[in-house]
Amino acid sequence: MRFRDREEGGEKLAVLLQRYRGQDAIVLGLPRGGVPVAYQVARSLGAPLDVIVARKIGAPQQPEYALGAIAEGGAVFVDPAAVREAGVGEAEIASIAEQEAVELARRVRVYRGDRPLPEVRGRTAILVDDGIATGRTARAAIRALRRLRPGRLVLAAPVVAAETAEELRGEVDDLVYVLAPEDFMAVGLWYERFGQTTDDEVVALLDRARRAPEGRETGAGPGAADPADPPADPEREVSIPVGEQSVQATLAVPPGARGIVLFAHGSGSSRTSPRNRHVAQVLRDGGLATLLLDLLTAEEEVDDRLSGRLRFDIGFLARRLVAATGFVLEAGATSGLRVGYFGASTGAAAALVAAAEMPGEIAAVVSRGGRPDLAGAGALRRVQAPTLLIVGSRDREVLDLNREALEQLGCEKELAVVPGATHLFEETGALDVVADLAAGWFRRHLAPPQEVARPPGLT
Fold first, then answer.
1. d(C-alpha 37, C-alpha 30), whole Å
2. How far is CA 307 from CA 175, 296, 345, in A?
3. Which helix (H) or strand (E) element contains residue 413?
4. Which residue of 29, 49, 126, 326 shows the fewest CB atoms closer than 10 Å?
5. What are the backbone dihedrals phi and psi of residue 225, each rounded to the nearest 5 degrees, phi first?
6. Is 41 helix (H, G, I), strand (E, B) or coil?
7. Of 398, 345, 347, 352, nearest to 375 (Cα)?
8. Residue-level pLDDT, tens digit, the chain, 459 residues
C-alpha cells in the first residue's frame, strides 16, 4: 500500500484518530511535510492546528545524517548510537546544535510570527508528521511538548518504521499510524507524490486552519483539491535508439528544470527500482529533470540473468549511456540543460567511462554504492566532471574500492560515507541521506555557471 499524497495520508490517519474528536485536542504538525497531513487531521477532528518546530542535528562532515534533533523551547534529543557510529564529540554536537537553533528560530518566526507556543496544558496534544524513519526529530518535539504539560500526548503519522514504532511507544501516551513496514528505507517510498513542502505552503495551511471556525472548513470534503498541493510530476515513457535497437526510459521534466540527471543502474535492477525512483523524486523536487534508464533491452536482460555476460561489460554499458545522453541533448524538452549522471553498482563505472568520453557535456557524477574501480584507471584520470562517491560505512569491501578509485580521479571529488549503512542502503533513513547528498551535489554543479557557488574545502 502507498498513499497518493500527504493529503490522502492525513485523511486515512484521521480515521484512526476519531476517538479524540471532542476531547479538547490540539493538532501540531512537524514542519514542513507534516503540516499537510496535520491539516487533514485537524479538519476531520474539528480541532485547532498549529506547529511545533524541530531541526535535525547533522554530523559535522555529513549534515544529511541525523545525530539527533532540537525543538523550540530548547528541547534536545541526541541518539548515542548515531553519535558513536559517526565518531562525533560532545563539543561538535553542541556547536552544530547552536547553528541549527538559528534556522529553527527563523522558521518559528515564519510560521508563527510573534505568537507563543500554543497552550496545551491539560489538553490532548496530537503531534503529526508525514512519516517517521529514525524518530530522532519526533523525539525532540516530544520533549518540547512534555514541558508544556499536556493531559495526553499522541504521536501520529501515516507511516512509521516498524523498529522505530517499538522504540517510540514508551515515550508517548498513544502512537497512531496506518502503516508500520518492516522494510521501511525512506518515507518517500510510501507516497506516490512526495514533493517538497515549502514555507509558503505551511503558512497558507496554518492561515486557512485559523480562519475556519473551530478548525473546520466548509465546502471541502475528503479528497478535495487543495491550493497548496504541488503539481504532479509529468512522467512519460520514451524509447531511445541505440544502434539498431532501442532501450526504454522514463523521462520527467518539471517546470523550469535547471538540469537533467540520467540514472544508470546496476545489474538486477531497472528503471522502476524504488530506490532510484525515490532519489529521482527528490531531485525533481529540487528542480531537476530525470531520466531513469534501462541500459539493456528486455531480451538482453533475460540473457544477462542467465549468462552474466553484459552486467560487467562496462564499455558496452557506457556506450548505451552516451547514446542516451545524445538523446536528451537533442530532445526539445531537455536540450540546453546541463547533464549529470547518477550511477549505482556497475552503472556507476559506466557513468564514469561515459563522462570521460564526453568531458564537455557532463557536469556532475554521483555514484551510489558503485564500483568506480571497474571504470579503469585510464578513464578515472580523464574524468573532468565533479564526482561524488557515496558508500555505506558497513559496505567495507566496496568502501575500500571507492577509496582507491577516489585517489585516481583527477577532477573535483568527494567521498561521502553514510554511517551505519550497508551496500543497498536498506537501513531506515539511509536512502534519505543518499538522496539529500545527491540533490546537493547536483544542485551545486548543474546550476547555470553564473549561479554556481562552490563551498571551500572540497577534496
1. 9
2. 49, 14, 18
3. strand 413-418
4. 326
5. -65, 140
6. helix
7. 352
8. 899 999 999 999 999 999 999 999 999 999 999 999 999 999 999 999 999 999 999 988 788 888 999 999 889 999 999 998 888 888 889 999 998 999 999 999 999 888 888 899 999 999 999 999 999 999 999 999 999 999 999 999 999 999 999 999 999 999 999 999 999 989 999 999 898 899 999 999 999 998 875 444 433 333 334 444 444 457 899 999 998 899 999 999 999 999 999 999 866 567 888 889 999 999 999 999 999 999 988 888 887 777 777 788 999 999 999 999 999 999 888 999 999 999 999 999 999 999 999 998 999 999 999 999 999 999 999 999 999 999 999 999 999 999 999 999 999 999 999 999 999 999 999 999 999 999 999 999 998 765 544 444 443
**SS3 of 191, please?**
strand
What does the chain come to in residues? 459
Work out the number of other CB atoms within 10 angstroms of the CB of residue 166. Answer: 12
Give me the sign of the Cα torsion angle 108, 111, 112, 113: positive
